[in-house]
Every structure is written in structure tokens, then in C-alpha cells.
Amino acid sequence: MTPGPTTTGETHPKRKRTVATSVPRKVLKKESGQTPANRTSHCRSTASVSAKKVNPLPLLRVLALYTDGYWYPGSVGDFQKPDNYKIVYDDNSAEWARTGSMRRLEVRVGDEVTNSKTNKSGTVKEVKEDMLVVSPSSGPNFDLSYRYLCIPCDKVEAQWEDRELTRTLLAGINDTSRQPALPEGADGFLRGCGIIITSNPTALAWNKEKIDIFASMIENGATLIEDWSDALQISGTYDKDAGNRKPKSWKITKDQARWFEELDKGSIQRVFVLADTVCQKPKYLIALALGVPCLSTNWMTDSLQEVRSRAKDWNRYLLPKGIDAPHNVRLSQSVNLDWGTVPEHLMNIMDNPYAHKLFAGKSVLCVGDDYIPEQHEERMGANNHGELGFEAPRTIRNRSNITSGVALIILAMGASQVTAVANFQDANKEEHFDFVVFKDPKWRSKHPTPKEGTSHASWAWAKQSLIRGQMLPVF
């Protein structure tokens, strides 16, 4: 039998399960007593911490049993002997749990899961970086964000036995005096460096190592950035019909996006995207469009293994820009090899002259059922503890109430204005668009005749043009 969550160190009133309720985030130090119904996916730490001031715990993502009898994603934030772990759930409420009440957060195809917002259940058919594709017993498949993931107790006991936490994974948390094995004087070699991480959830080797890598990066002064929408100051606008909660469109101009902070001595001076392999995930594609170097995770692991930790020459670790599908050729990135040496690189990040701005000066309409950036009001004003569960002198997480997607990729490709709609008929008929980019691959049969001066194309075409660095023939 799975042991229940403990109340060591803090107590909470008994709660009823509220799986269909959206719960706003709370500041961790208030120890919110609400059911964790809102979720953020994977590793969300964005704190830069000096190892001389704090002793950060290694980042460990878990699925943990809550007092309502359901299991939710969270992070281990603290430890009390002999066997009590503070779980910081993804809505920043917190509970104490024993080892038997936690599992490694490794969702697999075939797992039975529930959407805590809609109460819909089904079987996982595909595991993506930011969501799961779930097949219900009846009806079409649906996407499930990790922030709404919850799993009944009986399903965990039946399917998650091989994901129990091992002594090796918990060793660094149990020993609170433990520091990463870094050479003397290593602290700070990544100071002023912002890191955005995107990885394949099926890359087991990287996922096993990343806990220690994250801790070591923070020890050495790096700032982990959750999402491009947190690194950029974005002020797009939503258009809603009266009485309809869902917006029918979202619009942003190039002037409404810029680097999120003024550069000074204590700010981020350069930013990189780290990935385990070349990919086509939004974080990676936005970096390509902005001309921000995408590096192999080996850059970080090799740098940390130096006799005296120091950043290795990053240009040796550049990943391919992508694959030219027709010829199966790996293409190189278009980046400035002196990236990050002057403040203007970040201040003028939307106008990087070394990136191919294929939509420069163009107005682009993006049409797709998930192209309107989802609003997460609870992301705004979230706590300053990050995923590691301790006070941080610098925090930039959850700055924006949206996450990256196709609209931001198109904007990063130089468009002067981007409008996103779920359905073509929701677009302003009086407004001129130079390009209309469709998610639906069958767009030709549904919208065969564009207006004069407007080109219709598929998202696959826009993506491949970005990778090739030139406007390809429309397909």
C-alpha cells in the first residue's frame, strides 16, 4: 500500500478533491492549502543563485501523492530526516511526503491519466515536451498539459511501480551538506549567461543527468530561463467576443517584443538554447529565427568537467540548424560567433542582422486551432522560489502569461505584425495580410483563392523556409 503524505513540519486542513477547478498559484512561503490543479511542464527553474549564499538542492521532478488521493507533478524542495520530503507542486502549494508517496515524473505511452480541469480520462498515446496526447475510451484524442495532469492512486500502483525513487536519485537531497563536485574557484564562470533548455522526453541519458547538470549550472552563476515568452517583453493583444471566454484572435507587432530587462552589471549578458539534439520545438525554432546559438548539452557537461570549470568555446558545440529533408543534408546555423560580447546583441535581439528575417516588413496571419497563445493568468506574479524551493536573489520565471508557439516563431522571423486565429473566418476581412500560414495541410482545398497581394502557405513551408534560410516555393 502506498503511504499517505505526511504533515511533518507544516500542517494543512483536510481538503476535498477539486479536479475540475482551476486553482490560482500561490506564493510558496504562504504554504497554499489548495489542490494542485494548475500545472507547468517539466523543469521550470529560472533562478540564478550564488553557491556561497545558499546550498541548492538538486532539481528533482516527481509525481507525488496529494491529500485528496490523487497524484500530481511537482518538485522536491526540502528534506527532513528521516524520510520526509517537501513537495512543491506545480501551482506552488506544498506538502510533505515520504519516499513511497513519490515517483519519478516519467510519463510513458500507455499510462492512464486524467485532466484535472475537465475530469476527462484516457490513455497516453504520445509524450511531447510540453503536453501529452491522450486517447479517451470514446471520442477524439485530446492534448493534456502537464499542469493539468493528475493520476488516480490505483493507476499509479498498477503502472508506476518501476518508477519508484532510488537511493541514488535521493542521495543529493538527503545529504543537505552536499555540494556539486566542482573545483575550487569554479563559482561564477557562467555568471551573466541565460540558458533556455529544450529536450526530448525520450532521451533517457540526458534526462537522468540533467538534475545534477541544472544544479551545477546554477552553482556557477547561470540563469535558467523557462520560456522565450519570459525572456522577451511581450505585449500582444487579445480580441474577444462579448460573452465568450476564449479569444478569437491575438495580435502582436514587432515593436511589442523586446528583451525583458535593461542591461547592467548584474543582468544577463548573453543567452543560449541547449538541446540534446537538433529538433523543431518552439524554443529551438525561435532561437534559430532570432539568430541565438543552439548548442549541444555537451557544451555544458564538458565545461563543468574542466579542471577549473570554465565555459568552453561554444561555437564547437553548435547543433545543426535542421535537416534539408529532400537531400537529407544537415544545415549549419546562421549566428554571430561573437554573440553576447556587447549589450546590443540582446537589446536589439529582434533585429539581429545575422539571422535570416524571411518575413521582414510583412503582415502574417496564422490560422490553427492552437495558434492563439494560451493565457495563463496564474503565471503572472508567481513566487520567487523557482523549482528548487529556496529563496533566490534573482528570479525571472513566469513573467509572461503566455507560452511560445507558432505566432512567436513567425514574429521572430521578422514579421512586422502577426495575427493568430483558430479559424480563418475569425480574421478581420478588412485587414491586409501578406501571408496566411495554415496549420491544416489541406488548406488548398478549403481556401483555394487568396486575395490579391496575399500568399497562402502551410506551416510546414514556413518551418522549412526557416531551416533553409530562404523563401521556398509554397507548398
What is the average per-residue confidence, as pLDDT, rounded to a whole number?
76
3D shape: globular
Low-confidence stretches: 7-35, 37-58, 176-187, 378-396
Distance between the termini: 56 Å
**How many strands appear in the DSSP assignment?**
26
Radius of gyration: 23 Å
- Let me know the largest β-sheet: 10 strands, antiparallel
Count of runs of 4 or more consecutive helical residues: 10
Strand portion: 15-25%
Helix content estimate: 10-25%
- What structural class should be given to the helix and strand makeup? alpha+beta
Subcellular location: Nucleus
GO biological process, one term: positive regulation of transcription by RNA polymerase II
InterPro entries: BRCT_dom_sf, BRCT_p53bp1-like_rpt1, TP53BP1-like
GO molecular function, one term: histone binding
